[in-house]
Amino acid sequence: MSDDGSRAVSVIGFIGSVFSPWYRWSGRRDPANHCCINVATYGLGGRFTMTDRGSKALRQTASRLEVGPSMMRWDGDALIIDIDEISAPPVISRVRGQIRVTPSAITGVELPLTPDGAHIWRPFAPTSTISVELNSPGWQWQGHGYFDANFGTRALEDDFTYWTWGRYPTTEGSTCFYDATRLDGSELAAGIRFDAAGQAQAIPLPPKARMKRSLWAVARETRADAGYQPRQVKNMLDAPFYSRSAVRTQLDGVETVGVHEALDLVRYRSPLLKPMLACRVPRRANWTFTD
């Protein structure tokens, strides 16, 4: 998010693109054949890009993930994201440029999301600075950022019905909340405070507070001090099964604005959604690297 709160960006590198209908239709047999670097920008002139690419577009080293024309790479202490993508309808245009994410520290934390460890959350750098240089007017800014990963050996909808996640900056670093309802009815409820050095501490959970539903009526809730009503301050991504937004909440008596996500996997399980998603997520199986 930019320092003034007017703009934001989300970049996700997928090997096995979990929200791709093409990956689902393939039977999820070959994750490398459904890879993607998804870029979404929020604010004036925001764009959404998500292309499902084949295994010919994937190259990896210990310090680099390359998918077609875009890549993520470590350069010293910074994660550099080089972007060259085409946005989805209704506004089709090129999204090109570079994002630099500089963590204050790298953590050693992993959180199993299921008892058998089939799904893992890895918050690599909960507290980071970010510099954005994209090819559109106004898309050159600095702000605060976050870098994490999720790993899984089963489809999300095979193990979960609903989850919410939130990352909120604090004076010491960041606080993250992960709440989920598993398919068997059991609950995940985790709150972790990270300092600037990357040290993590589980915290007593503030109560859940319901928020207004998204435009697609996805239920939303986050954590907040007792009696405080969190609210959306910026809509980011709004889909029939998924919501991402900037949310203002209060933790330990201090208001903070962070990024919040809600995911309804009962809805996502519906086969009716997959053709809709295919319109936003084109399949491009072939690719040739020129170097």
Topology:
Elements: E1 8-15, H1 21-25, E2 35-42, E3 48-49, E4 52-53, E5 58-61, E6 64-67, E7 70-75, E8 78-86, E9 94-103, E10 111-112, E11 119-134, E12 140-152, E13 160-169, E14 173-182, E15 187-195, E16 200-202, E17 208-211, E18 220-223, E19 231-239, E20 242-251, E21 254-264, H2 265-268, H3 273-280, E22 283-284
Parallel strand pairs: 4-22
Antiparallel strand pairs: 1-2, 2-3, 5-6, 6-7, 7-8, 8-9, 9-11, 10-11, 11-12, 13-14, 13-21, 14-15, 15-16, 17-18, 19-20, 20-21
Short description:
The chain is mostly beta strands and 291 residues long. Helices cover 6% and strands 54% of the residues.
Kindly describe this structure:
It is a single chain. By secondary structure, the chain is mainly beta. The chain contains three helices and 22 strands. Strands 5, 6, 7, 8, 9, 10, 11 and 12 form an eight-stranded antiparallel beta sheet that branches. Strands 16-15-14-13-21-20-19 form a seven-stranded antiparallel beta sheet. About 35% of the residues are buried.
